[in-house]
Amino acid sequence: DVKVTQSSRYLVKRTGEKVFLECVQDMDHENMFWYRQDPGLGLRLIYFSYDVKMKEKGDIPEGYSVSREKKERFSLILESASTNQTSMYLCASSFFYEQFFGPGTRLTVL
Amino acid sequence: GQNIDQPTEMTATEGAIVQINCTYQTSGFNGLFWYQQHAGEAPTFLSYNVLDGLEEKGRFSSFLSRSKGYSYLLLKELQMKDSASYLCAVRDQNYGQNFVFGPGTRLSVLP
Q: How far is A8 from chain B (nearest CA, A)?
């Protein structure tokens, strides 16, 4: 069964903290994505990766960075968390056209 | 750039039929997707259209008109479990084959 897992379902951090969100897929997919989802705005692409050690900026990369050291793992990093980064974060992977999503991490920055 | 529009909310009755519309503007259209997302859960794939016409999959159908930049998702014989958000997404070959998502339509099915 296809599986994308994310390290935490809920996370509470303080302003200025460094935050790591981990995503792992077991489908041997080349492509991985990080989105944030906010009410009324839909899913917005933060970063994506088409291969190991490769990364590309999406629509809203400011304040975020990513790491893809292994094919199955794609990490999202908030270098210094701010309150406007409170959101639902969704990771996805794809092989051809269908994207498979993880369960999401609801991050609250206080 | 890309722009995708969907109604924000819809309400329908159990057993009825509902149509959720999606309009889009994109320069390099390469497929339209519908996802279902229950509250607090991950989106799950429902359908994919790349050519004009209707794709049917059980109680769900999706229609595409590329010339009009228009799609709809048709849900028949509504059940309470169909209460969810429905996301329209367009794949754009001028956007690195990435997906652009609409804001989603929250459907409430009432008894």
A: 13
